[in-house]
Amino acid sequence: MDLVDNCATAGPVMFDGCGSRIIEDGGPMSLQFNVSQLLKEPIGSARTYPCTGTFALDQGSDGSHVQGTAQFTKTDRGIWVSSSGKATAESLCSRCLVPFGYWVAFSIDEEYLPQTDVRSGLRIRYDEEVEEALRIDEFHTLDLSEALRQYTIAAMPLQPLCHPGCRGLCQQCGANLNEGPCGCAAPEDPRFALLRSFLTRSPDAQRQGP
Fold it and tell me: Which pTM was predicted?
């Protein structure tokens, strides 16, 4: 599919504590970032990274490709992530029921909280429960994959169309009308059944009324 082939892919990408990009051969680009250095910096310190890679949109999928940017800003508790871009998704057309791929725009604004103190290594306790997807793990790795999955699903259209002019399926034989006419007679509108019955009657019967 051209849509997927146009997405850039390369080896897994990680960032070290200083934000340097490390590329390794042999797999898809990663959406995991080591933020240990940023956690040590003053509040307001920021980094901007390319957000490019793949993540599982649902079980059994080949992986959704994402292209965008992510800005990480140090807060008093953790890292605020502002990310925007687009991700690939696949759905059945709501008219013709043919699977097709398309881009979904997303925008993420979430605060990620560390589970261990970057300096002491001690576990941090919070008054509220921290959603698992928004946790920075004990290795100070921030993983965007689950947030991307949730935000992409939320942005997917409820009635996706393979293209705006999709003609759908024939109501009688089920043929895909995008591939050409099926030969079935056009369905009659039941609202005009009484009028058709009246017009097909003889002139004398018409004068007598319905």
Answer: 0.70
